[in-house]
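Give me the fold.
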Amino acid sequence: DMQLVESGGGLVQPGGSLKLSCAASGFDFSATWMYWFRQAPGKGLEWVSTIIPSGGATYSPDSVKGRFTISRDNAKSTLYLQLSSLKSEDTAMYYCSKDQQGDFRGQGTQVTVSS
């Protein structure tokens, strides 16, 4: 069965950093575009970042560009998201997904940015 398991979230102060991980199994990870999404309380699912199968290109919205970095290790079937210069508005549940709509995703990992 296909599975995505996110980890690495936590409580961090504004300006701090975190690195999220997503362990993938049950599909050909090395051939799959991968995505990170987030959902803040009371809001819809928001796209955060995309990476192509080789890891040679990434895409992200202006809201996180320059602060968040997506990467992958195909040998480990693991996706990463480095979060830096965190702001309170980055507080959300973060999900990895293998589809562009975010329909198939893991259970998520909570990131809370607060002093």
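The first strand starts at residue 3 and ends at 7.
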